[in-house]
Amino acid sequence: MVEAAAIVVAEQARELRRQARLVRRKDDAEAVHQMRVATRRLRTALRALRGHIAPPRRLNKDLRWLAGELGTVRDCDVIIARLRSLPLPGAARGERARLARLVARLERKRGRRQASLREAIKRRRYERLQEELKDFAADSGGVHADHQLAARVLTDVSETLGEAVARSAAMTATAPSAEALHALRIMFKRLRYALDFHAAACGLAYDVERRLAREMQDVLGEIHDRDLLRDWLREGRGAFKGPWPALDTRLAGERKRLMRQFLRLRDAWSERTRPEPSLAPIVPPRFVNLEVQPVTLRLLTGPKQVASTKL
Length: 311
Known about the structure:
Blueprint: H1 2-25, H2 29-48, H3 59-84, H4 93-120, H5 124-138, H6 147-167, H7 178-202, H8 207-235, H9 245-273, E1 296-301, E2 304-310
Antiparallel strand pairs: 1-2
């Protein structure tokens, strides 16, 4: 199990270092995103194998800290990208001007958070995190893991997460709430990373399920972003102060389109993961006569009877 975990830990530790170099040099939104994904994959791997491996004591805490630092920048990137992709009709000239000012204000906020992130990954705490990851991956050098056990445990983890998805309110409700959709998004995110971990560690992959989980995570993320923006517009606090009728209408229209896409994916997921019917027919029990009956046995050689006995 240590050997299986080390495969993913070493790979994601390298990804963290690679993306951190880009974050230090320039304002690269994609590098921030990929660095955050690496922390999530690491946390999922450690969570999946809890009870089977013993990572360094502070590793989970330090990963949570780094994910939080990255999240503050990533959240700004997502909001800015969404607002930029929403052209408003010509009649909403005043609202367009306010939207441009809002985006500029968010970009300044993003710049401050990016500077804070750069400082964070220069600290001793980040260096310690990298050392912990490196040491954990190296500790498996002489270990020969039971790969059948690894596959079985990781399959159990994936199936448990899949069952949680199936029980989710958003998978059965005709019109799921925003809260239910957000909870389902988190479930699919964990399931997707667990399936990726399963494939990387064991060489076994649920290819179709992984693709559907990724698509579900993406569309649910798009829906959540629009729900969040609409909530901020309704609250009208800070930079979002004032009426936004054109922007809210545009967000509502895009949400409807995304919900249709979600429902199609939900049907595809349910069809893919529906248990197969049993091949054995269900028949009522029959009572049989267990009383011993006499049986005559004969040993024959050609046309001539050699012996005969009754049991």
